[in-house]
Model the fold of this input.
Amino acid sequence: MPGDKKRIPRNMARIEFLACRDAIESLLSQGFDKRKIHTRLTESGQFTMSYDAFCKVLTKASSNMLNVQSLNASPPTAPPTPAPAARPLNTGLKIITPAAKSFPDPRNMNPDDAL
Done:
């Protein structure tokens, strides 16, 4: 088969990525795109992973799912917001008063008043 490539073991792409992390960061900071970085590292023999696997690992690393701190800018630390003051709990009964112009009770209503 012409496209018969040997697959790398599971999670080896992540290991290869972490081993070349400094080179990847420097190439990204120089403005290289992902395709050129993958090509350069594959030709130099540092990578055996596919381009698709490289993109997936790079996306996970940039979203800090691999705990790679240097690929992410640290989130700005905002001062903690004070918690709102706690209101005292009302344990007594709450009396609800009807509105001044409440709807008339139809059982006590005069039909002539309704017209």
